[in-house]
Amino acid sequence: MRAAVACLVASLLLAACATPPPGAAPPGRAADDRPVPPSLGLFSSIRAPDGQEVALQLAARGVQIFRCERIGNGFEWRFRQPDAELIDGQGRPAGKHGANFSFEHRDGSRLLGTVVAHDKATSADTLPWLLLSVKSFGKGEFGGIDYVQRVNTQGGMPPATCSADEHNRLLRVPFSADFVFYRPRTPSKPG
Question: What is the mean predicted confidence (pLDDT) over 137-152?
Answer without folding.
Answer: 95
